[in-house]
Amino acid sequence: MTAIAAAPRQWRRPSLIANPWLRWGLWLGLAVYLVIGIGAVEVNWQRAYEGLDRGWQFILGFLKPDFTSRWGDIVVGMRESLTMTVTSTVVGVLLSIPIGVGAARNLAPAPVYLVCRSIIALSRSFQEIIIAILFVAMVGFGPLAGFLTLSFATIGFIAKLLAEDIEDMDESQAEAIRATGASWWQVVTWAVQPQVMPRLIGLSVYRFDINFRESAVIGIVGAGGIGATLNTAIDRYEFDSAAAVLLLIIAIVMICEYSSSYIRKWVQ
Amino acid sequence: MAITTLNDTKIWQRRTPPQQLLVWAGWLGLVALFVLSWQVMTQDTIWLFVLDAPQQAADIGRRMFPPRWEYMDRLWKPLWDTLNIATLGTMLAVVVAVPVAFLAARNTTPSIHFIRPVALFVIVSSRSINSLIWALLLVSILGPGLLAGILSIALRSIGFIAKLLYEAIEEIDEKQVEAISATGASQAQVMAFGIVPQILPAFAGITVFRWDINIRESTVLGLVGAGGIGMQLMASLNVLAWPQVTLIFLVILGTVVVSEWVSAKVRHAII
User: Fold this and answer.
1) How far is CA B143 from each of CA A81, B219, B262, rounded to the nearest angstrom?
2) A-chain residues within 8 Å CB-CB of B270?
3) Average pLDDT for B18-24
4) Which residues of A touch B253 (CB under 8 A)?
5) How far is B187 from chain A (nearest CA, A)?
6) Beta bridge partners of A105
7) How far apart are CA A15 and CA A135, in angstroms?
8) Does position A17 have pLDDT exceeding 80, yes or no?
9) Would you tell me which of A60, A61, A158, B121 could form a disulfide with A239, CB atoms 3.0–4.6 Å apart?
10) Per-residue pLDDT band at A6 (split at 50, 70, 90)
11) Can you give the pLDDT at residue A21?
12) Helix locations, chain A, DSSP H
C-alpha cells in the first residue's frame, strides 16, 4: 500500500448566504449591534437582586398553587374569558366571511377588493391590547369591550387567510359550475364554499384558541376576563394565586389545542 | 353525496338525510352556545355607557387630531429601547430554543421517553403564556425596565422557535443523514453536515418571522412597565394626552410596517 495522495481539491460546505461580502458584513453588523445594544440596556442590579426572593416565591407558588383563597374571582374571570371567546369568535368569523370573499382577487371587483384589503390591514397592524384600550375608552370597563376587541382582531386573521385560500382554490370546479349558467351567488355556494369550508372551520377553531389566550391579556387594561384576576394577584404579590390562574390558563390552552387539532383532522 | 329517485327522476343532493340532520344539529348547538354565552357575558353590562359609544368615539377622535409632532423628540429613545427588547430577546430565545428543539425532535433526541416529554413541556408552557403576562410577572420580580422586557420576549419566543424548528428537524431528508453516516462520520459530524444544512433556511426564516412578531409585541410591553415605547403610551393615556397617543400609534404603525417589510424581504431571499 502506498500512501494515499492528498486530494488535489478540497470541498467545503456551501454557505447559506453565497456572497462572502454580505455574509461577513452581516456577522460584523451583528457584533457591532450586540455591543451597542447590550450597552444600552441599563439594569438596576440591586433591584434585580432584591427581586430574587420574589422569583423564588413565584416558583414555590407553582409547586403549591392556591386555588381556594381567590376562587370566587377566578370563577368570574374564567366565565368572562370563556364567554368572550365564544361570542367574539362566532361574530368575528361571521363578519370576516364577506370581507374575506371581498378580498379574494378572483371573486371581487377591484374597488371592493381594495376596501376589504384595507380593513384587513387595519385590523392586523395593531396589537389586541391597543384596540382594547380604545374600546374600553368607548364602551366602559367589562367583557363587552373585550368582546369587541377580539371580534375586530379575528376579522383581520380569518379574512386574510380565507381570502388567500379562495385565491388558491381549484378554478376548474368554479368553471364547471359557471358552465351550467350559474349566477355569482351560485358559484360561491356550489364551487367556492365546499372547497374552502374545511379550512375555514379549521381556522375558526384555531382562532378560538388564540382568542382565549388573548382574553387572558386584555383584562390588564380593563377589558374583562381572567387577565384582570391575574393582574390583581400579581400586583398584591400573591404569587400562589397567580400560579393557580396561570396553571388554569395553561390547562385550558392545552385542552383547546388538542381538541382543535382533533377537529381539524376530522374536518379535513 | 346522495342520489334519490322520485317519480323515476334522479335527484342529486349534496348530503344524505342523516348527514344533513347532523350538520343541522351541529349548527343549532353552536347557535345555542352563542346565545347562552352572550347572555352570561352581558348580564353586568351597563347599556347606557354602550349606547353613547359613538359619541365617545367621536369625542376621542376629535381630541386625537392633530397629532402632537413635537413629542417625537422624546420618542426616539423609547423606540430604540423597543427595537433592543425585540432583537436581544429574539437572540436570547434562539440560544435557548435551538438545543430544546434538538432535544424535542423525534430523530435527534437522546431519549424519546425521558428527555423528549420534558422538552415538549418546556415548549408548551412557554407558548401558552403571552409575553405581556411574562412581563407582568418579571416586572414584579425584577422591577420595571428593559431587562424584564427582554426576558419576557425571550421566554415567549423559546416555545415558538423551538416548536417550528423541531418540526423542521423531523421533516428532514433522512437519505442525506444516511449518506453522511455511511462515510463513517461521528454523531457531531452527522449533525453538522447532514442535519444543519437542511434546516438552516427554515431556521433563518423562523427567526426573522419571530423577530417581526416580537417587534409588535415589544411595542406594548411598556404598558405593564417593561420598557420601550409602551411606557410613553401608558404615561400619555394616564394624563389623557390624546394628541401624543395618536403620534405614538403612528410610530408603532410605522415600525410594524418596516419590520414586516424587512422580514418579508429576508424570507423571500431565503426561500
Assistant:
1) 28, 18, 33
2) 16
3) 84
4) 125-126
5) 17
6) none
7) 50
8) no
9) A61
10) low
11) 84
12) 20-40, 45-63, 71-102, 110-125, 128-139, 143-167, 171-179, 184-187, 193-218, 226-235, 239-267
Burial B119-146 (b: 16+ CB within 10 A, else e): bbebbbbbbbbbbbbbbbbbbbbbbbbb
Residues A127, B216: C-beta atoms closer than 8 Å: yes
* Chain B residues close to A125, C-beta within 8 Å: 253, 256-257
Average pLDDT, chain A: 83
Is B37 in Cβ contact with A87 (below 8 Å)?
Answer: yes
Contacts of B91 (CB under 8 A, 6+ apart): A34
pLDDT higher than threshold 60 for residue A1: no
Q: If we measure between CA atoms, which residue out of A234, A246, A240, A238 comes closest to residue A66?
A: A240
Cβ A125–B253 below 8 Å, yes or no?
Answer: yes
In which region does residue B45 sit, left (phi positive, over 0), alpha (psi from -120 to 50) or beta (all else)? Answer: beta
C-alpha–C-alpha distance, residues A226 and B128, integer Å: 14
Distance CA B9, CA B68 (A): 74
Q: Does A201 touch chain B (CB under 8 A)?
A: no
Residues 90-149 of A with CB under 8 A from B: 90, 125-127, 129-130, 133-134, 137-140, 142-144, 147
Q: What does DSSP assign to residue A189?
A: I
**Residue position matching grid coordinates 416555545:** B159
A13–chain B Cβ distance below 8 A for any pair: yes
**Phi-psi sector, A141: left (phi>0), alpha (psi -120 to 50), beta:** beta
The verdict on a CB contact (< 8 Å) between A234 and B137 is: yes
Chain A neighbors of B34, CB-CB under 8 A:
86-87, 90
Note if the bond before B66 is cis, omega within 30 degrees. Answer: yes
Q: d(Cα A250, Cα A227) in Å, to the nearest integer? A: 13
Find chain B residues with C-beta within 8 A of A214's C-beta: 130
Contact A222, A41 (CB under 8 A): no
User: For testing the chain B interface, which of A22, A27, A32, A41 should be mutated: the one with the most B CBs within 10 Å?
Assistant: A41
pLDDT in tens, A161-176: 898 888 888 888 888 8
Report pLDDT digits (tens) over B79-96: 888 888 899 999 999 999
Residue % of chain B over a pLDDT of 90: 9
pLDDT band of A2, cuts 50, 70, 90: low
- pTM as predicted: 0.80
At B3, is the secondary structure helix, strand, or coil?
strand
Report the mean per-residue pLDDT for chain B: 84
CA distance A89 to chain B (A): 10
CB contact under 8 A, A235 and B193: no
